[in-house]
Sequence to fold (161 residues):
Amino acid sequence: MLVLAAGSYRGGLRRAILALKQGDRPDLARSLAALFPGPPPGAPLLVPVPTSPDRVRARGYDHALLLARHLARTWGCPVSPRVLRRTRATPRLHASGPGERRRLLRGAFAAVRSRKTAEVWLVDDLCTTGATLDGCRSALGMRGWDVRGAVVLARACSGMR
Fold:
């Protein structure tokens, strides 16, 4: 899967992502989304990687959904937060290696309806090992969605092109 990233997970971008997710700064989503130079080819449907309901309640917002909505407005394409859902909460993955992440995320996502468009791009803040994006792509693929790639704010992964 093609992963388009606005930058690397270090320095100011890393601090901004952490502030968005952990620092009660939903206002950063707009300026972070503006880091992308333009949309992927075609007119994709943007699907945010689902955040667990517990984390959304604790944070007060869904950071991936905010990013997807800002990108959709800028790029003139649709966003659909209800296509994909988390089936269960997962522990924080920041200290887990690639194999452990894949094990913890196995079955954690489900597509809630069948394909309605030909091209989907996932939206998230960070690609570390690619396990989360792979889990989402797999769940959508089982329901007939064509996941072409993902747009992320930062990339710390090497296993995806």
